[in-house]
Design a protein that fits this description.
CATH topology of the largest domain: Spore Coat Polysaccharide Biosynthesis Protein SpsA, Chain A
Number of strands: 18
Distance between the termini: 38 Å
CATH superfamily of the largest domain: Spore Coat Polysaccharide Biosynthesis Protein SpsA, Chain A
Order of helices and strands: EHEHEHHHEEHEHEHHEEEEEEEEEHHEE
Radius of gyration: 20 Å
Strand content: 15-25%
Shape: globular
Number of domains: 2
CATH architecture of the largest domain: Alpha-Beta Complex
Strand order of the largest sheet: 3-2-1-4-7-6-8
Helix content: 25-40%
Structural class: alpha/beta
Length: about 325
Amino acid sequence: MNYFCTLFDSNYLSRGLALLESLEATTGAFHLFVVAFDSACFEVLQSIGNKNISVISLNEFEDEALLQVKPTRTKGEYCWTCTPSLVLFCLKNFNLKECTYLDADLYFFSDPQQLLDEVTDQQSVLITEHRYTPEYDQTLISGKYCVQFMTFKNSTDGLFILEWWREKCIEWCFARIEDGKLGDQKYLDGWLEKFPNVHELAHLGGGMAPWNIQQYEISMKDNKLFAREKNKKSTFDVVFYHFHALKFLTADTVDFGGYKLDKNILMYIYRPYCLHLEKIKEKIIAAGRKIDVHGQNLTKKTPFQKIIFFFKRLLKNNMNVFSIKKIRVNKWPI
């Protein structure tokens, strides 16, 4: 049995449920602990009654240290602050041997067991690199490692590192660059040198994201997703993709964040994910829930027809790589 944990509010509900359902489709026995960051999210997750998740309210989760700093943090900053506390909460309250933190906007295309198997009996922590494409390299600002998929064992070393990280995040965790820090993430730089028994994920299929996907060729075979480094011949499983910067501008219009994405990436990665989010939204609406499960940004105006025309023209001219920010979910031209 593998144990995972995550946190999100009702604006990320469709993403969180897509994460859950992607795990159900790809892996064996698992359990996902979810801290619901508002009452609407808690109520929906409770009503689903899924045996693979345990829903934790903020009242259950928050301790005195977190509550003390909560008023000083924005909503996003507070979520970052809570990340190490969440893993620690799960390890201690549910007596787990190990627990893996997942960002709510991850989506699994293959079994994460192959990532967890990299951690030896002697190692206590697993961290993942950003592996930036050079033009998107933010190592100096955001750090070498990404807080997206992190495993901690309930061991002396694992707990020591986790508690150190929690203390640092409670002390300082803000969305600004200050003294070499940024949020909860820059703290991870140097862990391999600072702490014993930390493992850096080697599998390239773990941690694929819009900031590094340009380095790979994406293909589908026998209904399974593969990737290949552009300068190499061997392929590997796409285990999970991090849908960073994907925003809903309206009920069915998404902003991809301006990253360069080729048509196979859009077809095999973004299209199934966005359509899955839409199906989840429809189920929640059908159940009588009137909440914004996508976290729409209604302040932006999108010239729908111009975007669709531009997208079709690029494909018609065989321009495989391009930068496109917005597209209508229910009018995919591919």
